[in-house]
Write a structure and sequence with these properties.
Layout (H helix, E strand, L loop, with lengths): L1 E8 L3 E2 L5 E3 L2 H21 L4 E9 L5 E10 L10
Antiparallel strand pairs: 1-2, 1-3, 1-4, 4-5
Length: 83
């Protein structure tokens, strides 16, 4: 198994200094998608209306093996349930 590092940039660099082991690129891809999905969910539920992320996955030799970018925007069109 090889170790991969999931380095996030969302306005600031958040390097992954621990990484995780995966036996193939399907596992790396799955973790990358799950990681960003949780990040998007958390930010939008915390009432942040716009966010953008860049996730760069590197191998043990610091080679980039996968890059995932994502942005999300939320627009509230009504302030109340009865409106």
């Amino acid at each position: 198994m090889a170790r991969f590092f999931f380095n996030l940039h969302d306005g600031v660099d958040l390097p992954d200094n621990v990484g995780s082991e995966h036996s193939d690129m399907a596992g790396v891809r799955g973790e990358a998608v799950a990681f960003l999905t949780e990040r998007v969910r958390g930010n939008l539920l915390d009432k942040k209306d716009h966010a953008a992320w860049l996730l760069s996955v590197t191998d043990e030799s610091k080679n980039t093996v996968l890059t995932l970018t994502f942005s999300a925007a939320l627009q509230v069109t009504s302030e109340g349930l009865g409106a």
